[in-house]
Write a structure and sequence with these properties.
alpha+beta
């Protein structure tokens, strides 16, 4: 890869705030035909999707895996995460793995993220943050509402986006990891989602509606027979504030092992970093 390609790869990685500080500059399909043979499913796909967040809350907890793919200028990188989520307390913990540095620099340490209503906590953030300290960010202050900044979309916030579904269709029956599911395809409106979301997500989703290139979010959702999300793929687009390059982001969420223990505790105030976070072109764990 030549120097120009290296720079382009770095731009893609820096497009998400987790890789470049916390100032992501976000600026910006309806479903296909339903499967008529699935007569046992909900009569109205839109209603089923509106209720997906409630079904997760009823489930209590689950394990989660996340994948965020970013593409710009012919370069693609992927950030992966795994962890647990408590939907009733609205608290989650993820270990986020950053992509390898295309320049051959040493690998980055995993970042621990704690997800809470209105806030994102990160450890191993790097860029001048002590190793034993957490960084706390108000998600409503982010131009994407933390749908992409953290490198992983908050599972409950992703479900809340579905409350903004205007058009959707039942594609058909399939399986996700051996679990029978109904596959829905549609488009959600972030402005509508913000109106109907839980109080802790309204401001963040409203910020995302203003910040992305478009408030409409195309998605593919796979719900089990209890209406719980088993897989959700949402697609966002924005313009990287530094390079003014268009960035396409596909966020994929897998939920499984519902009911597992999910003991998530937020940091003590004394453990939260109060200094200034340095801007860098590398990953926060560097």
């Amino acid at each position: 890869m030549d120097r120009r390609q290296h720079r382009r790869a770095g731009t893609t990685a820096a497009a998400v705030g987790i890789v470049l500080g916390l100032g992501t500059g976000a600026t910006g399909c309806s479903g296909s035909g339903a499967a008529a043979e699935d007569v046992k499913g909900p009569a109205d796909p839109v209603t089923a999707l509106h209720r997906a967040a409630d079904a997760l809350r009823d489930a209590g907890t689950s394990k989660a895996r996340t994948s965020m793919e970013m593409a710009t200028g012919g370069t693609r990188v992927t950030i992966r995460g795994r962890g647990v989520y408590d939907y009733r307390r609205r608290l989650g913990r993820l270990t986020v793995m950053l992509p390898e540095d295309p320049t051959g620099a040493p690998g980055h340490r995993p970042i621990t993220e704690l997800l809470a209503p209105g806030a994102l906590y990160m450890k191993n953030r790097g860029a001048g943050v002590p190793a034993d300290k957490w960084v706390r960010v108000e998600t409503a202050s982010l131009s994407d509402g933390n749908l992409v900044t953290g490198g992983a979309t908050d599972p409950y916030a992703a479900a809340e986006v579905l409350r903004g579904t205007r058009e959707a269709a039942l594609v058909g029956r399939t399986e996700v990891a051996g679990t029978p599911v109904r596959h829905y395809r549609g488009t959600a409106d972030l402005r509508r989602a913000a109106r109907y979301a839980a109080a802790g997500d309204r401001a963040s989703l409203a910020a995302a509606a203003r910040g992305f290139a478009a408030a409409e979010v195309p998605f593919d959702a796979y719900l089990d027979d209890q209406g719980r999300i088993r897989k959700l793929r949402q697609r966002f687009s924005f313009v990287n504030g530094r390079e003014k390059a268009g960035v396409a982001v596909a966020s994929t969420l897998l939920l499984f092992d519902f009911g597992v223990p999910a003991d998530v505790r937020l940091p003590d105030p004394a453990d939260i970093f109060a200094g200034r976070i340095a801007e860098d072109s590398g990953a926060p764990g560097a």
